[in-house]
Structure formats: structure tokens, C-alpha cells
Amino acid sequence: MIGIIFDMDGVLYRGDRPIEGAGDVIEFLKSHKIPFVFLTNNSTKNAAMYREKLQKMGIEVEEEKIITSAYAVAHYLEKHFDRGNLFVIGGKGLQKEIEAIGWPIINIEDAGSQWKDIDYVVVGLDTKLTYEKLKYATLAIRNGALFIGTNPDTTYPSEEGIVPGAGSILAALKASTGKDPLIIGKPNEPVYEIVKEKLEADEIWVVGDRLDTDIAFAKRIGAKAIMVATGVNTLEDVERSDVKPDLILPSINELIEYLRVALNIRNL
Ligand SMILES: [Mg+2]
Known about the structure:
Layout: E1 2-6, E2 13-14, E3 17-18, H1 22-31, E4 36-40, H2 47-56, E5 66-68, H3 69-80, E6 86-89, H4 92-100, H5 108-114, E7 120-123, H6 131-142, E8 146-149, E9 155-158, E10 161-164, H7 166-177, E11 182-183, H8 190-196, E12 203-208, H9 211-220, E13 224-228, H10 235-240, E14 247-249, H11 255-267
Parallel strand pairs: 1-4, 1-12, 4-5, 6-7, 7-8, 8-11, 12-13, 13-14
Antiparallel strand pairs: 2-3, 9-10
Helix pairs in contact: 3-4, 3-8, 6-7
Bound molecules: magnesium ion.
Residues 7, 9-11, 208-210, 231 line the site of magnesium ion.
């Protein structure tokens, strides 16, 4: 059985605009009982927030099928490490997912007196980043706290242009601590462990728009790497890159036809 991992931004939608055919593809998968999950490196929203966003675009999917790097970090921590005090740099999505595992969180207001008690520093995209946050994260990591990142993307496209992503905040802390973070999200493998809990399949396809995260991730986990040309990377980028997709589709819309052929061949 094929199981499909979809990236979201640049694949299902761009900003708040759905990409034509995205809803049809999801309905096709449901009606053919092909398992799938949505996997995003974005940690600023949680699954409930994404479900609502997708619903507004006519894409109906249960929360359980949406995996953010925030969810992955929280569950990876729970699975591999002992309960301890957390310090979080990140948006609402990350805060909520971290709160959901019930480990104690040291807030920025208390960090001045409690930074020595921090066991884990978890870092994602934080649009309200301050020097204070970087300072206490640095002190804690230098004091032995484990340094964990949601995703490595140094930038992301916004309506105003290319802006700093979680990877740029990680880079600042790398500079101030001399330590490399354990990064959970794509293209790194830790997130695949979390995906596997929700996606049962013996052949995995990854559909994404970014070579450095989605396509590189597909290669690392031994999946079929399908790039759609509706997002960040272009065909010229593919030519210049060492990371090559197995298949390039103009958009997610063409996936139905490709799936029909693949399923027919299997049924012969
Ligand atoms: Mg994307």
C-alpha cells in the first residue's frame, strides 16, 4: 500500500489561496482508501488551527492527520527524554503542543531567577523574538540544557518577500553557545518517527515544493520524492541542485492521474 506525506504551504495552498485541485486530490485519496498525512515544518500553528485553515479552503481533514514540527518536537521529547523543565522560544502552535505533554515550562518572566533549572531549550519560529529570550536560552544551553530546534529553514517566503525563519534563530543561538541543535523537522529523520505512528504503508511518497526540506527528506527516508512546481523551488533550481526529485509535477492537480496509473498497474 502507498502512503503519502504532503507538505502544505506551496503544495495545497499559497498563503490563504488554495491550489487548484488540492481538495479533489484529498477526496480521491479518501475514496480509494490511500493513507496520507500532512507534514509541515511550520511550528507557529497547531493541528487544530491548520484544520480550520484547510476547511476554509474546502479541504476536509481530521486533526490527527496534520503533523507540525511543533507536534513532532513535543512527542519526540516525550518519547526519548526524561520529563524536565522547558524553555520555549516560538509561536502559539509550539507553546500549545509543548503544554499538551504537561512538562513544566519556565516562562520568560521567571527565566531571570530560574534559568539554571532549564533542562530543555526548544526553539521554533518566534515572530516576537527578543534579546531576553536569546539571552536566557544561551545561558541555559551553556549551563547544559539540551538545545532542540523545530526546523532548519533559515528563511520563508512572505507577502513582503523572504523573511527570517526558525533556522535563523537557531543560527543566532549556535553562534552564542557554540552548540548545534537537535533539529526534529524535515529534512531530518526524527520527524519520520512521529509520522510513522500515523501513517501505515509499505511504500511512502513525499509530495513537496522545497528541495532542501521536502525532497531531501524523501531521499533520507527512502521515499519516492515528488516535487510540485507551485511553491518555493523552480525547475531551474532542480537543475542547479544536487538533490533531485524522482518526479516533478506542474501542481498537485496532476497527482490524481499519476495515482490512477500507479494503482492500475498494481491491480493488473
Ligand atoms: Mg512547502
